[in-house]
Amino acid sequence: MNLDLSFYFAVFLRRIHYFIIITCLITAAAVAAAFLLPAVYSANSLLLVESSSIPGPLAAPTVQPAALEKLQTIENRLMTRTNLLDIAQKLKVFKDIEKMTPDDVVTAMRDHTKIKKSAGKGQATIMTIQFDGEAGPKVAAVVNEYVTLILKEDVELRTKSASDTLDFFEQEVKRLSGELDKMSARILDFQNSNSDALPNTLTYRLNQQQLLQNRLQTSEANIAQLTDQKARMIAIFNSTGQVNAPTTNQTPEAKQLDQLRIQLNTMLAVFTEDNPKVKLLRQQIAQLEEVVKAQLPPAPAGTTTSTNPAMSMLDVQLADIDTRLAQENKTRDQVMKELADLKDTIDRTPANQVALDALNRDYSNIQQQYNTAVNRQAQAAAGERIEVLSKGERITVIDAATVPDRPASPNRIAIVAGGFVAGSGLGILVIALLEFLNRSVRRPKDLINAFGITPIVTIPYMRTPSETTMRRSVFAVMMMLAVVGIPALIYSVHVFYQPLDIIMAKLAAKLGIRL
């Protein structure tokens, strides 16, 4: 495709007035906006989250939130409505702030504030605070107020959290100490109520039971021996008329009878009455008693028990034996009662063991919780001390905000240059559009394409001097309107209606653009 550049250049020259007018209009608007837009100053401050100056293994702080999470929390607390209104009213950040509503003030403060946070693995956590405004001292003061609030909030957050942690563990230690006292009292009451059946005295009571059983056997043997002795004395007295069998001139049967009785007493200390050996021995004794009784001489005539001295001696000895029997019976009954009581305590010991183990287990659990709470209380106290002395993780100012010596925006040269470039582009676009829409015959090639003939010569359109003058007059008027009228209109809007920066901010807000 061959382009006729000379033709298009001629078209451009013929329509150059559109290009000049449009370019001047846009450039004039850009110049007016560049000089009417207020200067915007920017101040910023750099904050760093420093790690704890005390190694964690030595004294771990109790406040250990993630650094980025801490910055987000502090940012949310900083940008509250109350803080922004206080700062704006205190520093008179905006012109005619008394005429602005609180919502407008808060919105403007948030729009002019920029907070950036950066963090990463193996990187420091940094926060940058920036504020834009019309006066350099004010923006620096606002940023410094922000920094002051952030540092104050950081200190309050750390110390309050550490203090709350310490208070919690102090209350926990106090509560568990009370639980330990209650459990100790319950264990003591249980031991006092079951002092006779405690597990730790079971061995002693079992030994006591064995001793009492031995005493009971001894007592029963003594009772059997005294009973047999009494019966034997009565039998001897009935057989011989004497209290004691004569030791001299005894028949062999009498001596054998004494030996068998002694043997019987010995066996009764070991065996019971139902033992076959005991029964056999008693039968032998009974037979010998009959033999010995038949060998005794008859008692003298005329003697009575009342006058028989042996009978009186028998009564004395029988009374002594009865007294000893009563004492032995009393001892046996007492031992049996003690055995019954001891058996009851021994039977209750397993249940007491289970109950006491449960109480001791609860006490051990509470004791373990108490020890853990005490250790954590000590850690919380150390952590609070660390935060009070600002030795833990904290936010520090790396670069404080200073008063800017020149405005950060607008870039007036860039606005003018952009307006000129935009105007030039729009002018060329308008000329191209007009040319595209124009379907008239303007060159020999169009005649050939339209009619199929080749002209010998073409004569261009010749304007008269009056047409040329009129054309130039219109062009001059439009140039004057573009150069003077557009800036004047923009200035009027800026002064009498609404400042250009506010109009641009509203327009950006509707378009979803953050300036």
Dominant shape: rod-shaped
Taking pLDDT < 50 over at least 5 consecutive residues as the criterion, the unreliable ranges are 56-63, 245-249, 299-307
- Largest sheet, described in full? 4 strands, antiparallel
Strand order of the largest sheet: 2-3-1-4
Could you give the count of β-strands? 4
Number of helices: 14
What is the helix/strand order? HHEHHHEEHHHHHEHHHH
User: Radius of gyration from the CA trace?
Assistant: 63 Å
Mean pLDDT: 78
User: How widely separated are the two ends?
Assistant: 45 Å
Percent of sequence in beta strands: 5-15%
Estimated helix fraction: 55-70%
SS class: mainly alpha
Could you provide a short overview of the structure?
This protein is mainly alpha-helical. 70% of the residues lie in helices and 6% in strands.
Question: Overview of this structure, please?
Answer:
The chain has 515 residues and is mostly helical. Among the domains are: 5-37 and 410-511, no CATH class; 200-374, no CATH class. Helix content is 70%, strand content 6%. The protein has 14 helices and 4 strands. It has helices at residues 5-14, 16-36, 67-78, 81-91, 102-112, 136-193, 202-240, 252-268, 276-295, 309-388, 412-437, 444-451, 465-497, 500-511, and strands at 41-50, 113-118, 126-133, 394-399. It has a 4-stranded antiparallel beta sheet. A hairpin with a 7-residue loop joins β2 and β3. α7 packs parallel to α9. It is rod-shaped.
